């Protein structure tokens, strides 16, 4: 479920940006990606929440007239990471953080039941096993996730929205360095849990990205919520660090932005908007009314 959470899962790994070729859903469609309006005490719309997906197949339709109209009404775009088009800087940042502590042979950090999956990814990546030995476990997990996926980060919704706001104000909730630092600061046990969770998911990657993308496209948040309980978020400690704590920090930042006169369009991974720990619920706890825009 990484594509619903972290843009750098798709963006960090030495990839140059392509041109987003998103296509629009029909104007009369009854289903679309979930969009929420954030209303203040007087009922006036003060901003919006939109759940994104960070990698998609080519020519995947997701834009709607309602979404485009809302984007025009917003005064700023708020994203997790703004500099997704600077592939060289992201790659250098990843390298600076991924190799700064000796990690030992990667094979010793992988659960024996996932070694076949690891060997298959080595063949796909066309690298020797020793390539991953100097990497910290979290970094190897991100690199292997990049190898496993077929959907393209160049097609990610975050990138398309950043293009739409070119020349307008964009605010970061985290930034690339802070986002990677979350992984870099994980205890080794949790890093290895992340690594093994990535390998566990590889066998079903192709099927899952299709199901995930279609579910996101239709705005079925109940099903999305079920899908995000798998994989890395099934690990209690990883969920706390990668989802719960970040959402709490973001809710405070978003409240600060909402206190000004400008209306923000907040676009973060869709997994951050779901359930009792999601941003809509956290903002409601802060006195806002958050409603789905149909």
What would you say this structure looks like, in words?
The chain is α/β, with parallel strands linked by helices. The chain has helices spanning 7-11, 65-73, 87-98, 115-125, 137-148, 157-164, 176-184, 188-201, 205-218, 221-227, 236-258, 279-285; strands spanning 23-24, 35-39, 45-52, 61-63, 76-79, 169-172, 264-269, 289-292. It has a six-stranded mixed sheet with strand order 6-5-7-3-2-8, with helices on both faces. Strands 1-4 form a two-stranded parallel sheet. The longest helix is centred in the last third of the chain and has 23 residues, at 236-258.
Précis, in short:
The chain has 294 residues and is an alpha/beta fold. The chain contains 12 helices and 8 strands. The two termini are 25 Å apart.
What is the topology?
Layout: H1 7-11, E1 23-24, E2 35-39, E3 45-52, E4 61-63, H2 65-73, E5 76-79, H3 87-98, H4 115-125, H5 137-148, H6 157-164, E6 169-172, H7 176-184, H8 188-201, H9 205-218, H10 221-227, H11 236-258, E7 264-269, H12 279-285, E8 289-292
Parallel strand pairs: 1-4, 3-7, 5-6, 5-7
Antiparallel strand pairs: 2-3, 2-8
Helix pairs in contact: 3-7, 5-8
**Percent helix range:** 40-55%
Count the strands? 8
SS field, number of helical segments: 12
> Could you spell the SSE succession in H and E letters?
HEEEEHEHHHHEHHHHHEHE
Oligomer: single chain
Q: Largest beta sheet, briefly?
A: 6 strands, mixed
Radius of gyration: 19 Å
- The overall pLDDT, averaged over residues, is 84
Strand order of the largest sheet: 6-5-7-3-2-8
Decide which structural class fits the backbone. alpha/beta
**What proportion strand?**
5-15%
Shape: globular
**How far do the termini sit from each other?**
25 Å
């Amino acid at each position: 479920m990484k594509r619903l959470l972290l843009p750098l899962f798709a963006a960090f790994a030495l990839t140059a940006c392509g041109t987003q070729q998103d296509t629009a859903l029909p104007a009369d469609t009854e289903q679309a990606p979930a969009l929420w309006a954030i209303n203040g005490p007087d009922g006036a719309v003060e901003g919006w929440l939109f759940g994104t997906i960070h990698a998609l197949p080519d020519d995947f339709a997701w834009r709607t007239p309602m979404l485009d109209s809302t984007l025009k009404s917003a005064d700023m775009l708020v994203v997790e990471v703004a500099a997704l088009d600077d592939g060289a800087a992201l790659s250098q940042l990843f390298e600076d953080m991924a190799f700064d502590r000796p990690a030992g042979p990667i094979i010793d950090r992988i659960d024996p039941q996932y070694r076949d999956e690891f060997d298959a990814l080595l063949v796909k990546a066309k690298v020797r096993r020793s390539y991953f030995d100097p990497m910290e476990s979290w970094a190897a997990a991100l690199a292997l996730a990049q190898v496993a996926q077929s959907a393209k980060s160049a097609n990610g919704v975050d990138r398309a929205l950043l293009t739409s706001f070119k020349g307008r104000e964009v605010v970061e909730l985290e930034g690339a360095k802070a986002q990677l630092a979350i992984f870099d600061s994980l205890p080794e046990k949790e890093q290895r849990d992340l690594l093994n969770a990535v390998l566990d998911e590889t066998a079903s990657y192709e099927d899952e990205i299709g199901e995930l993308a279609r579910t996101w496209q239709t705005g079925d948040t109940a099903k999305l919520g079920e899908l995000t309980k798998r994989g890395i978020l099934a690990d209690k400690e990883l969920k706390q660090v990668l989802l719960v704590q970040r959402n709490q920090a973001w809710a405070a930042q978003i409240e600060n932005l909402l206190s000004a006169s400008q209306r923000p369009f907040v676009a973060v991974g869709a997994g951050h908007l779901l359930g009792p720990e999601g941003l809509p619920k956290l903002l409601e706890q802060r006195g806002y009314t958050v409603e789905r825009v149909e």
